[in-house]
Design a protein that fits this description.
- There is one protein chain.
- By secondary structure, the protein is an alpha/beta fold.
- The protein contains 18 helices and 20 strands.
- Helices cover about 30% and strands about 15% of the residues.
- Strands 1, 2, 5, 6, 7, 10, 11, 18, 19 and 20 form a ten-stranded mixed β-sheet that branches. A four-stranded antiparallel β-sheet has the order 13-14-16-15, sandwiched between helices. The protein has a two-stranded antiparallel sheet with strand order 3-4.
- A hairpin with a 3-residue loop joins strand 8 and strand 9.
- Helix 4 packs parallel to helix 7, helix 9 runs parallel beside helix 11 and helix 10 runs antiparallel to helix 11.
- The chain starts with a helix and ends in a 25-residue tail after the last helix.
Length: about 550
């Protein structure tokens, strides 16, 4: 399926390659690129980049010959998809952007369901949180409303109205957080194809791609070929009751479209969609610089479903490298002067069952009783409150916890104090930080690896959305109590295995260098902004422009 779609895209792209810049090919009129391609590979940790770097021969190998910052940081504590993507193209920490987590609790909203998804607009009638892990992704109305700051694309369109700001991703929250408020076209995967904002029409070319995908997605798929360097990682690891991971090569039986997202084919479909958008919109073919944000989500689904160290991830890294190489070759053929930035929204941690066999004696799953419901019941019993009325809310065992607003102020304080004491005493909990304690902390500008845990929590904090207190788990504690629902591993901690991501820049003719000292993802927007003529005022960014010239010139000037 994927090969035929890609071949069609290649043929279509060839029809317009070399036309827009025939008059000035090799003699660019401006230092500004025609196209910025901003790529986020979901859960592509700095550890994965380092581990597989020597095996790359395609797109990732090309990027590794550009400007390499191997120690990039998503510096905040809430290392989840939505907060991470909210930093990449805005230049501000996730808390300042208003994106404190993938989901948070808002006890003031009218609807019965008080959980808010970062990329929904709960003000719209009919929007509900639903289950975003399901293929249908719930019944919410997708929106960028919660993002409180502009993206680079938003800023570019203000100073260059002819520029196009386009985004496509395997997840709506990635596309929306990178694209922003003023997008010309935006698409994300939903069900068995690509969807867009409510009220917008799907481009005919994207509709045609959807039709092509839908015609084959349910068909059986043979296993991927196993690269030689992946053989050592082909080992079965048991977890749960009679389940295992580590030796799967993504073969699918007839009718198994539901597992499509957790395979290398998923990223190929997103790249196909990006290719269609470039062709149909003639991105990078006009007089103004365009921005294309691309969110590749398969690495995250594979990390969740199979962990980060097995055969599955090894094959994924190989196929991601191959797919990106094909994509860059297409751009080369179109004679577009483009710059690529690639990073990740967060890192990830392998499943504890495998980690415990590989020298991490402390690796463990979270206590199933460490949650708002169970802790709330214990607190209610101690304080003599009705057992049938929740006093504590949270979206998971870690992160933001909220005390019921139905209680009196005096009782809310008692509930909070009691809950904090119980949770802080748990052997799997590293720290519990209260709302006012976090609010009083100044967001640091020092090297992110030196930040304290409270400082990391502060970067994720928003005074109106964050909880009454925040729970941080100890290292190597996987906040998934059971693998019954299919997820074996995850991310979201304040620890560096979740914070560290590569930050890579490439442009034809760029001078290669590698800077091992730490930088942050909030530095990306100011860096790209300098290339495209967008000046982000210092007071409106938490980052700084990185000089990626590699020579006597300064790309930030």
């Amino acid at each position: 399926m994927q090969k035929s779609i890609l071949v069609t895209a290649v043929a279509a792209l060839i029809t317009f390659s070399g036309t827009a810049h025939a008059e000035d090919s090799g003699q660019r009129k401006s230092a500004q690129p025609d196209l910025v391609v901003a790529i986020s590979v979901d859960q592509f940790s700095a550890d994965l980049f380092s581990e597989y770097r020597s095996s790359f021969t395609g797109g990732l190998a090309r990027l590794a010959q550009g400007v390499v910052f191997p120690s990039g940081y998503q510096s905040h504590a809430a290392t989840e998809t939505c907060p991470g993507h909210a930093t990449i193209m805005t230049g501000v920490h996730s808390g300042r952007a208003g994106i404190i987590a993938n989901n948070w609790i808002d006890l003031s909203i009218e609807r019965e369901d008080k959980t808010v998804y970062c990329a929904e607009d709960e003000r719209i009638d009919g929007s509900s949180f639903g289950d975003i892990t399901a293929a249908a992704q719930g019944d919410y109305i997708a929106s960028v409303w919660h993002l409180l700051v502009p993206t680079l694309g938003d800023r570019l369109k203000k100073v260059s109205p002819d520029s196009r700001n386009v985004a496509v991703s395997g997840k709506d929250r990635a596309a929306l957080m990178m694209g922003g408020h003023d997008v010309d076209e935006i698409y994300w995967w939903k069900g068995k194809g690509f969807s867009t904002l409510q009220g917008r029409k799907t481009m005919p070319a994207i509709a045609a791609l959807n039709k092509s995908i839908a015609s084959t997605i349910d068909k059986a798929r043979p296993a991927f070929a196993v690269p030689a360097h992946c053989a050592a990682r082909n080992a079965r690891i048991a977890h749960g009751e009679g389940k295992s991971v580590g030796d799967y090569a993504f073969q699918r039986p007839e009718g198994a479209a539901s597992v499509y997202r957790g395979s290398p084919d998923f990223d190929k479909s997103v790249i196909d969609a990006a290719t269609v958008l470039i062709k149909e919109l003639e991105l990078g073919q006009g007089d103004a610089t365009d921005i294309l944000s691309v969110g590749l989500s398969a690495t995250d689904y594979i990390g969740h479903g199979f962990g980060t160290e097995g055969l599955e991830m090894c094959i994924q890294m190989s196929e991601l490298d191959r797919s990106l190489g094909q994509f860059f070759d297409l751009l080369d053929g179109a004679d577009i002067d483009y710059v690529v930035m690639l990073t990740a929204d967060h890192g990830g941690l392998d499943l504890p069952e495998r980690m415990s066999l590989q020298g991490v004696a402390t690796a463990q799953r979270v206590d199933p009783d460490l949650n708002a419901k169970t802790i709330g019941r214990k607190v209610a019993e101690v304080l003599g409150l009705p057992a049938d009325q929740p006093v504590l809310y949270a979206d998971g065992p870690f992160g933001d916890y909220y005390v019921s607003t139905e209680l009196s102020e005096d009782m809310r304080k008692k509930v909070k104090d009691s809950a904090v004491a119980l949770i802080a005493a748990h052997t799997q909990v590293e720290m519990v930080l209260e709302h006012d304690e976090i609010a009083a902390i100044e967001v640091p500008r020092s090297a992110p690896e030196e930040w304290t845990l409270p400082q990391r929590a502060r970067a994720s904090f928003h005074p109106d959305r964050s909880g009454d207190f925040v729970v941080l788990l100890k290292k190597a504690v996987t906040p998934i109590a059971t693998t019954a629902r299919g997820y074996v591993a995850t991310h979201g901690s304040p620890w560096d295995y979740d914070r560290r991501v590569p930050i890579l820049f490439w442009r034809e003719g760029i001078r290669h260098f590698e800077q091992p000292l730490s930088v942050m993802t909030v530095d990306i927007a100011p860096t790209l902004g300098a290339l495209v003529g967008v000046d982000i005022p210092a007071e409106e960014t938490d980052g700084q422009c990185l000089d990626i010239d590699g020579g006597p010139l300064n790309s930030c000037e």
